[in-house]
Amino acid sequence: MYLRIGTTLALSAAIGLGGCSEAPPDIGADQAEKIPVTTSSKKARKLFFAGRELADRIRFTDARDYFLRAIDEDPQFAMAYLYLANNSASAKEFFSSLKKAVFLAEEVSEGERLWILGQEAGNRGKPEIQVAHFTALTELYPEDERAYNLLGGLYFGRQDYDQAIMQYERATEINPDFSQPYNQLGYALRALGEYRKAEHAFKKYIHLIPDEPNPYDSYAELLMKVGRHEESIENYRKALERNPRFTPSLVGIGNNQMFVGDYEAARATFAELRELARHSGERRGSHFWTAVSYVFESDLGGAIESAEAMAAIAEADDDKAALSGDNVFMGSIHLYKGSPDDALRSYRRAVELAEQADVNDDIKENARRNLAYQEARVAFYQGKLERAASKAAEFRAAARAKGIASELRRSHELDGVLALVRGDAEMALAELEQANSQDPVVIYWTAKAAFETGDVEKAKLLAHSAAFFNQLTPNFAYIRDRAKELLETVSAE
């Protein structure tokens, strides 16, 4: 499992599952070359470091308890709130914890302040400020491996994998026993298709902390990606042997089962996840993946029923941020399964819920801005190309004004699909190659564009990549069957 730096509304809402010195840290005093940890309580400090150690090892639920206890000991503990946000059980907890960390940021060291405000900038959709803060953090603490690991995570999220790898490698140079960068390095190499190097990174990760579950879980994801499903499940089970409540490994086993077509077994695995769940986030995750299993089977009713069960948990928790994400998820199910009118209602409801949620104005504005993206997609599936083009232009202008990498990629996706439908395959290919390279839906459309340009070999390679994407994303369920059909067509040429 990859540790994502920060959380987005959709990620918190839809998934809800949940840096390391391997020797016990010195809790008596901060080393001058490391980012300080400011607290008035020795007990809170000790609890924080214990939680951080667990968080480093991707044991989010276990870590969360320590951060809560640290806050009980010192209610002004800014970094404990930040870590609580990043190990939260819900979207609601994430936003409230980050808000508290930001409120306390002026009372801590410059390093902590840069870290907290950098994450807030990312959360508010201010990418250049986030880059500036995290880069300044590495400059202020050039011998702190965590600063480089944090910056690497930022570049990873921007799909600048070469820069991410550079930062992760710097972190390992500073502290070769710091396990987390090897994990994230493996995922960056996987994204570049460097599977042998990724395998080496994950095996180094296993070597460093062989008694922890996540190294086996991460290696299993690589094996799943390359189609070695039995070996993947075997490694997920190794993770569960080390921690039977390491729920991400149940997600991985269930996805392997879906990819080979054993949907009943996958749903049984996700039901097992639900039985082991320790908080609403994990319970929601079990319903989320159950819904995805139904999408793979083209069972719209089953998918929506499971998504509604997930949303019911958020509603019981009065978590409108999570509910907003749930409606985006349900909208996409409707859209890809041929109900664009229902999709539009869900997307608009998502914005209404975001407006009501206890989140900052930037998050609300983000939801409003991205509605144009969703409306363009709906119009495309309705066959209303002029409206699709109008909404795509609206979203393009907003995305360029904000400069958020993920939104710019979505804008290229819209423009690429529209160009393809209008018969300009060369323009479509140029646009789609600037879209999200890690989205199987984008890969599918890029394959179609390549085929239309006459580049059969490229089309075949991309269609195969989309048809056998084998990663943990609902988008694979939306597009796999179409990608397989395209692969058959292209291979016949």
Mean pLDDT reading: 92
**What structural class do you assign from the helix and strand content?**
mainly alpha
Residues in helix, %: over 70%
What's the architecture of the largest domain in CATH terms? Alpha Horseshoe
- Low-confidence residue ranges: 4-30
**Overall morphology:** globular
Radius of gyration over all CA atoms, rounded: 22 Å
Quick structural overview:
The protein has helices spanning 9-14, 42-56, 60-73, 78-86, 91-104, 110-123, 127-140, 145-157, 161-174, 180-191, 195-208, 214-225, 229-242, 247-259, 263-276, 280-296, 300-316, 320-336, 340-356, 361-382, 385-402, 405-421, 425-432, 440-453, 456-467, 474-491. With 493 residues, it is mostly helical.
Secondary structure layout:
Layout: H1 9-14, H2 42-56, H3 60-73, H4 78-86, H5 91-104, H6 110-123, H7 127-140, H8 145-157, H9 161-174, H10 180-191, H11 195-208, H12 214-225, H13 229-242, H14 247-259, H15 263-276, H16 280-296, H17 300-316, H18 320-336, H19 340-356, H20 361-382, H21 385-402, H22 405-421, H23 425-432, H24 440-453, H25 456-467, H26 474-491
